[in-house]
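input
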Amino acid sequence: MTILQVFNTKTAEIVCQHQVEINQSFPKEGWVEEDPQEIIQSVYECIERTCEKLAQLNVDVSSIKAVGVTNQRETTVVWDKETGVPLYSAIVWLDLRTQSTVENLINKAPGKDKNHLKHKTGLPISTYFSAVKLRWLLDNVDEVRQAVLSGRAMFGTVDSWIIWCLTGGSSGGVHCTDVTNASRTMLFNIHTMDWDSELCSYFDVPMEILPTIRSSSEIYGYLKSSSMAGVPISGCLGDQSAALVGQMCFEEGQAKNTYGTGCFMLKNTGTTPVISDHGLLTTVAYKLGRDVPACYALEGSVAIAGAVVRWLRDNLGIIKSSAEIETLAATAGTSYGCYFVPAFSGLYAPYWEPSARGIICGLTQFTNKSHLAFAALEAVCFQTREILDAMNQDSRVPLAQLQVDGGMTSNRLLMQLQADILGVTVVRPTMSETTALGAAMAAGAAEGVNVWNLRSSHLPKVTCEMYEPQINTDESEFRFARWKKAVQRSMKWETTETGVFTVSKNVGRTA
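output
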């Protein structure tokens, strides 16, 4: 989905907004794609419709001082810089087609260690990250390979594609990305804060197709067309970093969890990267200006959160809208011993196990759809608990409260379950779309724009809802232990083994 939101820089309140749904396609099992042309057209549509709404509110478009961009970080686009035409569909972050590519890359690592590059990237070799998607494109799409050989190809995550298009495209568009998006490619050295020639060589990726790396808050260029022509683009953050900024987690030790399609917890570790020993990622949190130091974060990524609700709606049909799950789950008030591991795309942190697949266990004749709905919500909370436990072990500083955002946080039952399962206070801002706010803050604070002050004394006060744990620790630990048993049963489900099966054509016939 593409959303454009206009914020008041004094209050952080939304002035107006417009959103456009983006279609996802699933050409094969495990493949997830989007159309880059549809993405950029949706951006232009949001710009025009938002400007119309501003006019209806008697707000002059000239009052918009800057534009920030935030995006799905690992979703990968390759396009022709001469024609401006994408050379293939955008491969979405949770796409699994690169499993064999990942296996090949791990096999050439010393000791076949998936963490072989972690000292430079902060990341394990996984289907999740952009470099393996780009490697797949180079190996499997002739148009991409030929464009690279002829010097016409440009690579980027969605932020790069959008900024390039908005600043002129093939007529002088700016090909750049920010440090937070670059840190999710596996081609970026999180210590030198630049593309790394050894990493590019490992993935056999030509460095000349990569975007220029910039900070998260500076003027990259100006909109060349649309009703906002001339407005600077001056903020760029990957979506989870944008949420961290929007939650104003600027102090070391502060953490937020975003509940969207997946679930992403980031903990600010300050200006020193912390390499995880417990399955977490080390990523760049933000760099708010060219001449200021970058801040880092420990991150736990869960592939399936809100997506499990859509699965119950679209695949099983037990709810008609995503909002119905809260009411349905509340009618049971318990999963009645049913546990759901939604490993549809394998398991991300802290396991990084692509062979896992979704399972539902603990079923009895008494189990019904309301228990399944409750188990689905619990699954989101249990996955978050796994991340929090790993984060506490790595940082050695237990988290006292968790700030949350994202579409699923409107589900009050989910938020209470999360507090119960974590055993800590869950804090939800009443304005849950903090990702867009973070991008707006970065854009407004950029040198040359200077309409947003990010000093702690000038940050706006945001009203919040608080959820306190309401069950005892023994019950929480018992339920979590049962969940961990279910996770183990989901492991190693998908293998490369093939079998031959025959079906008798005489079944059901009488002699």
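quick obs: The mean pLDDT is 92.
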